[in-house]
Amino acid sequence: MVCTLYSRDSVLICTQITMRALTHFEKCLEVNEAIGCADGIATVKANVAFAKLKYEGINNNEELLESSRELYELRIAELGEEDHLTILAGTNYAFASRMQTVGMSVIEVASTSKQVLGPHHCTTKEVIWHSNRS
Question: CB atoms < 10 A from the CB of 52, how many?
Fold first, then answer.
């Protein structure tokens, strides 16, 4: 009984936190659109899609895949493949792609991260952690 109650409370807390996060993301989206920040817009859209998928149970993998792809391609164009923000965006795109099986590989992103940032960089460690989850 206590475990069930704890579990319900945890779900309720996660839902409340997610709702606050989504409200925050909506405000961030408005600001980024007002100033014309393409990276900010793409980042917010990807965060919203991931939050909906993970915590609200809204299974819209296509939205997550599309927003992750847009952010990754934007970062490649603006920062290059070897920037740590591009590598993180690539990791998120690979995660979304794995769910859709379109072929983006976390292993490819991990390899780039190791070559560019080194095996002990925090970004490389995060990418490797994601690749071990697949």
Answer: 17
